[in-house]
Amino acid sequence: MIKFEDVTKIYPPDTIGLESVSLHIEKGEFVFLVGPSGSGKSTFIRLLIKELEPDRGRIFVGGRDLGSLRRWKIPYLRRNIGCVFQDFKLLPSKTVFDNVLYALQVTGNDSGSSRRKVGEILNLVGLGHKMGNYPDELSGGEQQRVSIARAFVNHPPLLIADEPTGNLDPDTSVGIMQLLYRINKTGTTVIMATHDREMVDRMRQRVIALEQGQVVRDQRRGGYGED
Amino acid sequence: MGKIRFFFGEALRSLWRNYFMTVAAMVTVFLSMFVLGVVLVFVYNINAVLKDVEQKVEITVYLKDSVTSTEVEALQKQILAMPEVKDSQFVSKDEALKRLKEDLKDHPELFEGLAKNPLPASFEISLKDPQQASVVAARFNGKPMVEEVRYGKELAERIFRVTSVIRNISLVFIILLGGVSILLISNTIRLSIYARRREVEIMKLVGATNWFIRWPFIIEGLAVGLVGAVLALIFVTLGTNFVMDRIRGALMFLTVPASAVSVAQLAVILLGVGALIGAVGSGLGLRRFLNV
Q1: Higher confidence at residue B106 or residue A148?
Q2: How many other C-beta atoms are found inside a 10 Å radius of the C-beta of residue A95?
Q3: Residues of B in contact with A51 (CB under 8 A)
Q4: With pLDDT > 90 as the criterion, what percentage of chain A qualifies?
Q5: With an 8 Å Cβ cutoff, are A106 and B205 in contact?
Q6: Mean pLDDT of the residues in chain A
Q7: Residue A83, class by beta-carbon neighbours within 10 Å (0-12 exposed, 13-18 middle, 19+ buried)?
Q8: Can you give the pLDDT at residue B281?
Q9: Total Cβ atoms within 10 A of residue A62
Q10: Nearest residue, CB atoms, B205 vs list A72, A83, A107
Q11: Which has the minimum average pLDDT: B116-125, B182-191, B264-273?
């Protein structure tokens, strides 16, 4: 599903984002990406959606080499990768319903069936009763569920979450985690960058630990710290 | 089809939601197009007055007393056949004297001792393009029945010099003004897009193509440009009608043409420029934020 071959990213003048990272993530895996701030988690994610270009090495997503992907094809790549961010990134001018629908509209789908899909997924994340609200009328946890709904409404093969629980209280975080876990169970590969030690320890999934841009640990069924 | 409706819906919604920016941009377009419109009307009218002045340049061909009426008729035909000539009028000796008497009717004593009519007969020739006066006049030199050719050479040349300077100045002025309008409007639009750069970033992350993001912005710009220009058109038309009435009342001797520039002409220019600047300005203003 995802392959990094000796990937290095350096931010000018000499800040290391990632250094010689090689790894392989299979289809359907659930992967935690852990490490302190500045360890390269966000760089990893931004490279995956081709928001950044590596300085060295090659990245494959779904068998496709991102380095040879033309600029105008980037939107089509991103439609196959659902993204969830710490700051939700919802469009403030659109209702909850329209925010999720937008992800379908960009693919040219604006039919009755896509509207039905939006309704279904919002019910699934427990926001069926708030479809007509605007993002700023929702709590942080609710906004994050909207953004997960938006990321998943296309049923992308890959879902990336960058600190999705970073702004949320522990109880709300558990709800978000369960949602991501259920999404993973439908066969979608999930990569989640996080600081949340407790969560990682409880889930017992694959953990990739980064430090100063390097992979220092890659462990099946791991915990947050060394063990 | 559904896409087009979606783009228009998006554009309208965001115009409504960002009404402050919408109004600011519309006012900018309105002011720029208003000034441009006023200058255009002004220049058109000056041009019309200049044309009128130029039309007054005529050629007068004085004939020898010995000419016969058949010769006059032949010459008249010859003159009217020249491509540059708009009209030619024969003024007989008697006619000339009558005109002179009319002009000097306060001094009848001047004509008392007059034994015979000293005035020559003449042709008064008006031209399609007055600038051709010297060329046409030269053709009459040396003809046996022609006494003298006059076309107010010095005056004509001075008029043409002045009018061409005025025309060039107004052209430069319009071009400068057009440039300033474009800068001003596209800057305002860029500002309003800057306020929404996060939205653009999110759209890109969700997988929207650049054109999918761009169309609503272009439609917005088009709408703002059109509304601003329509307002400008209304004000310019009302304003010039008002001012022209005053000028005509005050300066009777200037034959200001009734409508040197038609409302339709003005509408095409102002609406065209307004809509174009709006659409292109927001299309270009978006460019920096699309590189995510």
Answers
A1: A148
A2: 17
A3: 205, 292
A4: 72
A5: no
A6: 91
A7: buried
A8: 80
A9: 14
A10: A83
A11: B182-191
Q: Domains, chain B, ranges and CATH?
A: 2-53+159-290 (no CATH), 58-151 (3.30.70.3040)
Query: What is the identity of the amino acid at A171?
Result: D
Residue B258 pLDDT class (50, 70, 90 cuts): low
Look up the ipTM and state it.
0.86
Residues 6+ apart with CB under 8 A from B33: B181, B228, B229, B232, B233, B270, B273, B274
- Nearest Cα residue in chain B from A154: B206
**CB environment A109-126: b (16+ within 10 A), e (fewer):** bbeeebeebbeebbebbe
Q: Which residues of A touch B199 (CB under 8 A)?
A: 91-93
Instruction: Name the residue type at position A198.
Output: E
- Which band of pLDDT confidence, cut at 50, 70 and 90, is reported for residue B112? confident
What is the dihedral angle through the alpha carbons of A44, A45, A47, A48, rounded to the nearest 10 degrees?
120
State the pLDDT at residue A66: 93
Amino acid letter, A29: E
Residue A187 CB neighbour total at 10 angstroms: 10
Using the beta-carbon criterion (under 8 Å), do A76 and B207 form an inter-chain contact?
yes
Tokens of A166: 């970073």
Give the gap in angstroms from C-alpha B22 to the nearest C-alpha of chain A. 15
Chain centroid to CA B96? 38
Q: Report yes or no: B212 at the A interface, CB cutoff 8 Å.
A: yes
DSSP 8-class letter at A168: S
Residue A115: both structure tokens together:
């509207």
Report residue A79 as tokens. 């439609």
Query: What's the rounded mean pLDDT across residues A162-184?
Result: 90
Two tokens at A196? 């949340």
> How far out from the chain centre does Cα B221 lie?
28
- Chain-chain contact of A51 with B292 (C-beta, under 8 angstroms): yes
**Long-range Cβ pairs for the range B151-158 (8 Å, 24+):** B151/B57, B151/B58, B151/B59, B151/B60, B152/B57, B152/B58, B155/B57, B156/B57, B156/B130
- Listed range (A4-13, A31-40, A48-57, B149-158) with the worst mean pLDDT: B149-158
Q: Among residues of chain B, what percentage have pLDDT more than 70?
A: 95
Distance from the Cα of residue A49 to its chain's centroid: 10
